[in-house]
Amino acid sequence: MTVRVGFLGCGLIAGFHALGLARVDDADIVSVFDVDRDRTSAFAAAQGATVATSADEVIDTSDAVYVTTWTAAHPELVAAVAAAGKPVFCEKPLGVDLATATAMIDLVDAAGVVNQVGLVLRASPAFRWLRDQVADEATGTPMSMVFRDDQYIPIQGMYDSTWRRDPAKAGAGALLEHSIHDLDLIDWIMGPVTEINAVTAHHHGIDGIEDQATVMARTGSGAHVVLSSTWHDITSRPSQRSVEVFCADAHLRVDGDWTGPVRRQHADGRDETIKLDHGNANPDADFIAAVRTGQPANPDFRSALCAHELADAAYRSAAANGATITI
Ligand SMILES: NC(=O)c1ccc[n+]([C@@H]2O[C@H](COP(=O)([O-])OP(=O)(O)OC[C@H]3O[C@@H](n4cnc5c(N)ncnc54)[C@H](O)[C@@H]3O)[C@@H](O)[C@H]2O)c1
């Protein structure tokens, strides 16, 4: 049986999920809705889907629903999908703050619906490789991670979103809106994070929307992590991550979000650069498989709680001029 998929929100990320779903045999996008009617029509035409006139119409006519609106609209729509007892995929961040995200996690758990969050980098072959390397006793004790993430401020260029300059819709700037992925990866690869210090800056002068966040974290095993997240104006530069980890017996490096290249330098002098295979990594296929089997999806909403807690702690630290926050 083909899974009928609906979309609430027909913007940029909806298009990326549509590409993922196109690689899944047993899923069809059947119904879509956006408060912007031109976007609804364009996305519906591209996907061969019905132009719905309300969120309820999408929910009624779909077996599973993607919530890909701006962040502030996620909770109400997730609640509507869960109330209908249907599986839901929601983009990150789940909500504009920790309290909202926590309530959403509790809500889908109580409803007992299959739920997945858009922390898609957990499916990245490069970051999975890094996690395996750090966990491997052969690389020695994890000591430090330097995580650099930058993109041009997404109120221009291909993102061109007005809502990312509005804290009521986005919650905050670079750290929550974009680098919540990085906070998740830091804890997933190096964690658990036990302490955070952070500072933020607002070079673009947009109230509540930081364009530079610098986070220092300490993990339970005593490793140190530094994250620098920058929203600049170099529009010719694609969104890029570069991550270096020192373990006692290996230097590990990831450049790029998905297939690397990754690099491993061993204590015995071996130095390898590896271009990873894309493999079958496809978070949309994972969601559809969970919908079909009724098994829990991965990463589910609850998996995002830690990243939301770390973002909240970082903002509290920044508000207190970099004070240490214990997690
Ligand atoms: N996982 C990732 O890597 C990733 C990447 C980009 C964006 N995102 C997240 O995806 C979400 C959307 O981002 P985007 O880049 O696609 O933004 P976008 O501006 O391109 O699209 C958002 C769309 O939501 C629509 N919308 C707002 N409220 C609505 C409502 N109540 N009902 C229906 N439609 C509504 C808007 O009209 C707009 O078309 C955000 O939460 C963002 O943080 C995740």
Task: Tell me what the structure shows.
With 327 residues, this protein is of the alpha/beta class. It has two domains: 3-119 and 282-300, 3-Layer(aba) Sandwich (Rossmann fold), CATH 3.40.50; 121-279 and 308-326, Dihydrodipicolinate Reductase, domain 2. The chain is built from eleven helices and 15 strands. It has helices spanning 12-22, 37-47, 55-60, 74-83, 98-111, 125-135, 167-170, 174-178, 180-190, 283-293, 305-319, and strands spanning 3-8, 27-33, 50-51, 64-67, 88-90, 115-117, 142-152, 193-201, 212-219, 224-232, 240-247, 250-255, 262-266, 271-274, 325-326. The strands form two sheets. It has a nine-stranded mixed beta sheet with strand order 14-13-12-11-7-10-9-8-15. It has a six-stranded parallel beta sheet with strand order 3-2-1-4-5-6, sandwiched between helices. Strand 13 (262-266) and strand 14 form a beta hairpin. Helix 6 (125-135) runs parallel beside helix 9. The longest helix has 15 residues, at 305-319. The radius of gyration is 20 Å and the shape is globular. The site of nicotinamide-adenine-dinucleotide has 26 residues, from helix 1.
